[in-house]
Give the backbone structure.
Amino acid sequence: MPRSSAVRPEEIRRHNLSLLLNEIHTRGELSRTDLTARLGLNRSTIGALVSDLVELGLVSEYIPARGDRAGRPSHVVAPRPDGPWVLAAEVQVERILVASVGLGGRVHARVETPVDVNAATPAMLASQIAREATRLADAMPPGATLLGTGVSVPGTVRRRDGLVEHAPNLGWREVAFADILSAQLDYGVDVLVGNDANLGALAEHQRGAARGLDNVIFLNGSVGVGGGVIADGAGLQGTDGFAGEIGHMMLNPDGPSCHCGSSGCIETYIGEHALLRAAGVTEGFGPATTAAVLAAAEAGEPLALNAVNQVSLWLGRTLANLVNVFNPEAVIVGGSLAGVVRLGRAVVEAELGRRAMAAARAAVRLLPPGLGSESSLLGAAELAFQSLLAAPDAAVSAPTSRLAN
Ligand SMILES: [Zn+2]
């Protein structure tokens, strides 16, 4: 940090504006008193900053009804529901999710479309997203500014430029999906792409089950198994942004072949298709079939129950390796794998206990996602909010000059 004499008041104001908006965005509505305490600024400074954010159309203020407490109630500052918003999209192997998301991580609307990635090119998926985006944009209040678009993909994404380097289960190699989607969207806003599990970890850390925790692993298990790691409070990226490919850690070189080109990867033992095959399913793979197998296991059907136990055993082994390497406070398991944990938790925990080193095992909790099935989608929204949160007054101008989309 530069010496205070070198920092101009305008820079300090911008910095504080960003801090205040981040607080409201992450925590939801807060009273001026809470903001004063959390940011360590005086009341008049908070008042001036809030006025700026109100003027920019980002937050609104209201005076709460008097409760039991004596004295004048503090103004409450809340994200504006008709304020700027972002498009978030999540490309999965069997469906696409698209949502309009406002400040505070509020999902205005969300649509889900089944897709067949084996038949669809990246351009076809982009046009599907663009179609849904138009419908979502039409449903937003007039004058609400679209800030940008964030996309989650189940593959390795190069940090430098957002290139999807390899998405094994989509059959993509070196796909510039941001450019492809950008060409189909009419809004002239940036499109940013990230890895699904890294984005899920980010969102869970910001407003989900990992809030306030510094060392967390998010395992996103569906057809593919992705991983996102929060280490010492920050997302682990690796040299190019490819870190966290937990699904492609090798358990057995003689194991089943994997879409990534290797064999015996973790994904081939705990991914959705491993569960279905173990349950005797040979065709009709998809979310409905997975849900049916989990329901059958819950009802005590022996083959389905055995499949859940088998996946749980390998999941326990996977978690033991992760716990030994990262010493996390929590492991969050999302996707359809969360359903396996719900039913097979005793098996997972027993195997984790047997295989992990005792001290690291004692520190870790196994948690469901705080954001349900929306971790990666909300993480994608965060990509698109980044520039606003960094410099609120640069990203939007005062309401009178805001453009209707
Ligand atoms: Zn693999």
